[in-house]
Structure formats: structure tokens, C-alpha cells
Amino acid sequence: MYMQQQQPLLSTQDFNMAAEIDTRNPDVYHHRGQLKILLDQVDEAVGDFDECILLRPDSALAQAQKCFALYRQAYTGSNPAQVQTAMDGFEDVIRRFPKCAEGYALYAQALTDQQLFGKADEMYDKCIELEPDNATTYVHKGLLQLQWKQDLDLGLELIGKAIEIDNKCDFAYETMGTIEVQRGNLDRAIDMFHKAINLAKSEMEMAHLYSLCDAAYAQTEVARKYGLKPPTL
Predict the structure, then answer these.
(1) pLDDT tens-digit series, residues 105-161
(2) Where are the TPR repeats (predicted)?
(3) CA distances from 21 to 14, 18, 80 (A)
(4) pTM score over 0.85
(5) How many domains would you assign to the chain?
(6) Rounded to whole angstroms, what are the CA distances from 89 to 45, 96, 232?
(7) How far is CA 114 from CA 108, 124, 148, 206, in A?
(8) How far apart are CA 192 and CA 159, in angstroms?
(9) From residue 30, how far is each of 37, 72, 86, 106, 136 by CA, in Å?
(10) What is the CATH number of the domain that holds 153?
(11) pLDDT digits (tens, 9 = 90+) for 60-81
(12) Max CA pair span of the chain
């Protein structure tokens, strides 16, 4: 709740207090590691994931999220050797935990960064097979189709499927709105952004969505005023 209110210091203090109360609770380190990722404190996040794994070696989520943290660190630092080590780590995670959908999803994101689109698509398919009701995976797979094959119809179909599965998936509405802006369908884009705004989980997220919506609205007004047709994909 503190993180949703953009109060990371209070959030960190609570997690630190939890760790002092129960030093052997793996959940504390797991969730604090996730917090550290959000705060871009990757080294500390990896340390917390390691502590979680030490206490609970069968924690597939912690293993996968540690790999992703190491990957992001290597990728942003332009270190090809460490990137490959992280990718090998993902392979090890999905081998040891073949039922962990998050492992496949995070690996797919890393593969997409590396432009290994075919394998990323396979990972998303595996994730959907394990969790067919996870709307976010359909959005990521839809975005992959746009980046990989420039297949707008399939991309929109998959994002539409995400909304069908979960009509409270703000990520799907935001993504659909962004695509509709690029297609020149500004009224529909504004509608999608409004739906996402109504589902926003934090003030920062809401501000971001309002900026997208206002930009689309401004384009609409300019187009109407001057009789222009918005550019389309």
C-alpha cells in the first residue's frame, strides 16, 4: 500500500521491520526483493532473492525473478557475457521448475529484448498453457506480434482476448489505447485510456494515463478544427 502511494521509504521500513521480527521468513525477503527491483536497487534485490532461495530452495518465483534482475542489470550495463549468463539461468529455471508460468513469461521478455522473437513466442505459449486466464500474458504476446511480424490484426486480437479474460486489466486498455492512437482511431483510444484510468492502482500510474489521454484528445481537437485526418499505421 505504501508503494502504491509512492512512499517507498515507509514501505522499505515495514519490510525491514518484518525481517527483524522473523529472520527466517522467506516471504519477507522475496517481497522486499520485488520492492528493490521497483526502486532500481538491483544488487540489494538479488541479495534478498538469494536469502529467500536459501530459506526456501524450491521457490520458483524467487529463482525466476532473480534471473530477471540479473538480466536487466547486465542488459542495461551492456555486458554481453553477463547477459548470456542470465539467459542460461533462465534455461535452468524453466528446466527445474517447468510449471512456473512466471519463469516462462520473464524469459520471454528477455528473449524479446534480444530479438529472439520466435523463442519468445514459444515461451508465451507455454505460459498461456500453464495459466490460460492470465490476461497480462496475452497483452505481452500481442505486443510481440507487432514488434516481430508487424501483425496488427493478431496483436489486437490477442489484446482483445486479454480484455475478454479480465475486463479489469488496465495494462490491456492502456496498450490498446496506444495502438489505436497509432492507427488514428483517436476516439477509441481516448475511450481505452479512460477505462485504464478508472483501474489505475497509483497516482503515478493515473498521471501517466491522463497524459496519454490528453495527448490523444489534443490530436482529436486539432484534427477537427483544421479538418485533418490523423496519421495511421
Answers:
(1) 999 999 999 999 999 999 999 999 999 999 999 999 999 999 999 999 999 999 999
(2) 26-59, 101-134, 170-203
(3) 11, 5, 40
(4) yes
(5) 1
(6) 16, 11, 41
(7) 10, 15, 12, 31
(8) 12
(9) 11, 18, 19, 16, 21
(10) 1.25.40.10
(11) 999 999 999 999 999 988 899 9
(12) 66
